UniProtKB/TrEMBL annotation, chain A:
<dbReference type="Pfam" id="PF24237">
    <property type="entry name" value="INO80E"/>
</dbReference>
<dbReference type="GO" id="GO:0031011">
    <property type="term" value="C:Ino80 complex"/>
</dbReference>
<feature type="compositionally biased region" description="Polar residues">
    <location>
        <begin position="247"/>
        <end position="261"/>
    </location>
</feature>
<feature type="region of interest" description="Disordered">
    <location>
        <begin position="201"/>
        <end position="223"/>
    </location>
</feature>
<feature type="compositionally biased region" description="Low complexity">
    <location>
        <begin position="40"/>
        <end position="54"/>
    </location>
</feature>
<dbReference type="InterPro" id="IPR056515">
    <property type="entry name" value="INO80E_N"/>
</dbReference>
<feature type="compositionally biased region" description="Polar residues">
    <location>
        <begin position="201"/>
        <end position="215"/>
    </location>
</feature>
<feature type="domain" description="INO80 complex subunit E N-terminal">
    <location>
        <begin position="61"/>
        <end position="108"/>
    </location>
</feature>
<feature type="region of interest" description="Disordered">
    <location>
        <begin position="12"/>
        <end position="57"/>
    </location>
</feature>
UniProtKB/TrEMBL annotation, chain B:
<keyword id="KW-0539">Nucleus</keyword>
<dbReference type="InterPro" id="IPR056513">
    <property type="entry name" value="INO80F"/>
</dbReference>
<feature type="domain" description="INO80 complex subunit F">
    <location>
        <begin position="10"/>
        <end position="56"/>
    </location>
</feature>
<dbReference type="Pfam" id="PF24245">
    <property type="entry name" value="INO80F"/>
</dbReference>
<feature type="region of interest" description="Disordered">
    <location>
        <begin position="54"/>
        <end position="141"/>
    </location>
</feature>
<dbReference type="GO" id="GO:0043065">
    <property type="term" value="P:positive regulation of apoptotic process"/>
</dbReference>
<dbReference type="InterPro" id="IPR033555">
    <property type="entry name" value="TFPT"/>
</dbReference>
<feature type="compositionally biased region" description="Pro residues">
    <location>
        <begin position="123"/>
        <end position="141"/>
    </location>
</feature>
<protein>
    <submittedName>
        <fullName>GEO10739p1</fullName>
    </submittedName>
</protein>
Length: 297, 141
């Protein structure tokens, strides 16, 4: 970056020289002299800065750490010496106390032995003291047992509240858990039953949708051909006659049989009769209407 | 190059000092643990001593007036238990022994004298050898 900057400065100076050359010949000598100082100035600070940066980085990293570690080491050595002295003093103290203890025990044994052997007042005193010590020992054991029991109770206590969230019922948890698990099974069975019902409803709904679609094309197809239109008109005409009088119906029936009309005409009459007999079966009517279409084709 | 050498030197020194610091720190921790343990034991022993004192007082014993004769041999045993001091005591015993017992003095004194006497005759042998070798050339001539 610095080199680029110096190059630009040199370029600017050269431009200045070029501009100054045409007016007079004495001026070119001055820019040549001016060129030398910036080069020397630029080189020295760059090298010094790089050297100082390198030295500083290295020295700060290791030299300072070395100094700090020396201080720390000194402190640790002093601390170690202190602990060593403390250890020795405590050891001596321990030896002293242990010596005193052994001495006193030896003295006590001298008094205790004859007290145990003889049945004098000393013996009674010793017997009084012994049960006290034994009672103390028993008390300690009892306290330990009580502590153990408390621990067991404490262990039991968290177990009890744990049961209700899992099993609301109370009593023998294993047996009732099994029963409830068996009870849960029908609930699980019930859920798939409900799912089955949902599936049935799902199956029903798509079955209902297709007939709606099927009805639409039927409405469109009759309008296409003129013959079909004529048939519809013929079908419409007899209906009021049949409704008005039943005799007309009987008259029309034999007339058809006697007249021996074409089979195409016979079929619409039959379709009308079916309509009279079974009005609820719209699907069958639709199916019958399809048949004549086929004959015409 | 010089800068790199200095950096490497400082780096090595730093590593060595760090290791040494770690070791001393660990040793300090161990000492602290030992001191705590010993203090605990001392506390228990003091409790036992108090109980024994009460019991003896009930019996009416004059344990306080008993003279302190026993600690002398125990003191020696204590010193023997320690590492550096028994060596010092052994050296003291060796120095004290010649003054107290004249019998063992004589063999101790004789042994170094014999060694010195042995060393004395060995020295003249190499001295004599070179003059024998020197006159041989003139005889040949």
């Amino acid at each position: 970056m610095l080199d680029g900057w110096y190059c630009r400065s040199l370029a600017n100076q050269e431009d200045g020289a070029i501009k100054d050359e045409p007016p007079s010949d004495d001026e070119p000598a001055q820019p040549a002299r001016d060129r030398v100082p910036p080069i020397s100035r630029g080189a020295a600070p760059a090298s010094s800065s790089s050297v100082s940066a390198g030295l500083g980085a290295g020295e700060t990293d290791f030299k300072e750490r070395y100094k700090n570690l020396k201080k720390k080491l000194k402190f640790l050595i002093y601390e170690n010496e202190y602990f060593q002295d403390l250890l020795h003093t405590n050891q001596r103290r321990l030896l002293k106390v242990s010596r005193d203890r052994t001495f006193l025990l030896d003295r006590l044994l001298v008094y205790e032995k004859p007290a145990k052997d003889s049945s004098d007042s000393d013996a009674t005193d010793s017997s009084d003291s012994e049960p006290a010590s034994t009672s103390g020992v028993a008390g300690g054991s009892q306290t330990s047992k009580d502590a153990i029991r408390r621990k067991h109770k404490d262990k039991g206590a968290p177990g009890i509240p744990g049961v209700p969230p899992h099993m609301p019922t109370v009593g023998a948890p294993r047996g009732r858990r099994r029963k409830i698990l068996t009870g849960m099974l029908p609930a699980n069975h019930g859920i798939p039953a409900i799912a089955a019902k949902k599936q049935l409803t799902a199956t029903v709904s798509p079955s209902q949708q297709p007939p709606q679609l099927q009805t639409a094309p039927k409405d469109v197809s009759p309008g296409l051909s003129q013959a079909e239109i004529a048939r519809q008109l013929q079908e419409r005409r007899p209906t009021p006659l049949e409704l008005l009088s039943p005799e007309c119906t009987s008259a029309t029936v034999p007339t058809t049989m006697l007249s021996d009309e074409s089979p195409s005409k016979c079929y619409p009459n039959e379709s009308l009769q079916h309509l009279m007999e079974d009005d609820s079966h719209s699907h069958e009517v639709a199916a019958e209407e399809c048949v004549p279409m086929e004959y015409t084709s | 190059m010089l800068l790199n050498k200095k950096e490497l030197m400082y780096k090595q020194l730093v590593e060595k000092l760090y290791d040494r610091c770690q070791r001393i720190q660990a040793e300090n921790e161990r000492c602290v643990m030992r001191v705590n343990g010993i203090k605990k034991i001392v506390r228990r022993r003091n409790h036992d001593v108090e109980l024994l004192k009460r019991r003896l007082d009930k019996h009416g014993d004059d344990w306080r007036s008993v003279p302190m004769e026993a600690p002398h041999p125990k003191g020696k045993t204590e010193q023997k238990r320690r590492g550096p001091k028994p060596k010092n005591k052994q050296a003291a015993d060796e120095t004290g022994a010649p003054g107290s017992e004249p019998g063992p003095n004589t063999p101790a004194a004789r042994k170094p004298r014999k060694q010195k006497a042995k060393q004395a005759p060995i020295n003249p042998n190499p001295v004599i050898a070179p003059p024998h070798q020197q006159p041989q050339p003139p005889l040949l001539t």
